[in-house]
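Let us practice reading a record.
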Amino acid sequence: MTDLQDVRRFRRMRPTRPLLSRFQVHGEWIQGVEIVSLGAGGFGAWVEEHYADLLAPGNRIHRFVWDDPGLPAPPEDGAVVFCALRNQSAREGYVMFGAEFTHPSAEFMRAIENLGVVA
């Protein structure tokens, strides 16, 4: 058995309060995205299971925004990196997925890094 290696390129933090976001995939808005892990390069989140088909790895994310005006404006585009299988989630009715931001600005990356890392 080989050791699993963490392939994250950026440190991650866990929001200390609920952090919701929304974005578009294939022109459809995905609402109520619950961010549970955030870094300068991307995020991990829970989303209602009925969105799972839109979150296939490689699908492009557009118009990303979060519902917290206290955070720096995020990159508007990204890509889905992974999505848990439907009906195999630790949280009934939801799936976990991860996404990378496309070309985050240096300013955004510094702002996120300065928020502090607890994960």
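A brief commentary: The CA atoms of residues 65 and 74 lie 7 Å apart.
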